[in-house]
Amino acid sequence: MNLKVGTTTQAQIIEAFGGPNIATIDGSGQEMWVYDRHATVSYDKTSGFSIGLFGGGGGGGGAGLGGLGFSNRKSRSSQSSRAMTLVIKFDANKVVSDFQSRSSSF
Known about the structure:
Blueprint: H1 10-17, E1 22-25, E2 31-55, E3 66-90, E4 96-105
Antiparallel strand pairs: 1-2, 2-3, 3-4
């Protein structure tokens, strides 16, 4: 959704975002809504390898099979978080008069 000053209504915002985390009145008497959203992104990559050695030898017409197996599994994972805060102010007609957003990743 694109917020537009003088056009977007409270009803449209509720339909798109749901209810705000905080609804209050600022110092100048304007209604203000605050949305705080947090997301965690996880990435997991597993890699591994194995080595096999097969050999044979025997005596007296018999065959033998010897083997060596080795495997190593390494797991790499990473995780990041993202936070976004959206502050929306409304005029007396419940239409957006101003808004600000901030986001951070860590």
